[in-house]
Write a structure and sequence with these properties.
The chain has 261 residues and is of the alpha/beta class. Helix content is 53%, strand content 15%. It has an 8-stranded mixed β-sheet, sandwiched between helices.
Length: 261
């Protein structure tokens, strides 16, 4: 794969139009292109004049489009999370985890995690098949949350790993003094045996992988030639800069382009 490109900006500035146009242009030039929308309010299929579908659609010989079904990916993400948690905490049978997981979908950040999970899966599948992946993103608010989430996740997992290590160290000290019978059978007291610590490390690697995808991809900011659009564009530039993410290009729709660097 040569490049992943994200089209960013407020709603109504023409992200979908420009993303679709670039994808079509690249396909016409002989490149294999996958164009996807992670915006819950999709209109990729409308742009290309085809009937909306939850499946991938071949528009041209070298161009495939997909509107990611965020609701489906949210359910999938919650199901996978639930299964992992039940397996990890299987020694705590007295806790009713079923009801706890039922409310997860209403928790803040679940939609963003689901979109990131879907994006991660999409890129991993398509990067071996195509030359370019073009992503049409949601409007500013949701988009910034998506871009900020991997870095925040890495920070939180680092902290959780520290806390988990302390717990396991305390258990190990007690076992050293009182023996293994001091705790119920199956309760871990070493990092190598602790499924929770292993899951934290696994989730850290996933977050790091997604973070690197966002960092190395090209980010294209789409603006309209008006004060409101420019001010929101400045907000996006500043927010991404605070995350150490570089914006590569700004496009004033119907006006031209300018280098951000």
């Amino acid at each position: 794969m040569k490049k992943t490109l994200f089209f960013l900006g407020k709603g109504g500035v023409g992200k979908t139009t420009l993303a679709g146009s670039l994808a079509s242009y690249l396909a016409e030039k002989g490149h294999e292109v996958f164009l996807a929308s992670i915006d819950p309010a999709h209109n990729l299929f409308d742009f290309f004049g085809v009937i909306p579908s939850r499946k991938q659609h071949n528009i041209e010989k070298r161009l495939t489009i997909e509107e990611l079904d965020i609701e489906y990916h949210l359910k999938q993400f919650l199901r996978q999370t639930s299964e992992k948690m039940k397996d990890t905490y299987r020694y705590l049978q007295m806790i009713n985890l079923e009801n706890m997981f039922d409310v997860l979908k209403h928790s803040p950040g679940m939609e963003e995690y689901a979109i990131l999970s879907a994006l991660h899966e999409l890129i991993n599948v398509q990067k071996k098949k195509v030359d370019y992946i073009v992503i049409d993103t949601p409007p500013t608010g949701l988009m910034l949350k998506i871009f900020a989430l991997p870095k925040a996740t890495l920070m939180w997992i680092d902290r959780l790993k520290e806390l988990r290590k302390r717990i396991l160290e305390r258990r190990s000290q007690i076992v050293h003094i009182k023996g293994k019978k001091a705790f119920p059978e199956g309760l871990p007291y070493r990092c190598d045996d602790d499924e929770i610590f292993k899951q934290l490390e696994f989730q850290y690697r996933l977050a790091e992988e997604v973070w690197q995808i966002l960092k190395v991809s090209s980010k294209i900011l789409v603006l309209n030639f008006d004060e409101l659009s420019v001010k929101e564009g400045e907000k996006i530039v500043n927010a991404l800069s605070s995350l150490d993410i570089k914006l590569d290009l700004a496009v004033f729709n119907k006006k031209g382009m300018s280098d951000i660097s």
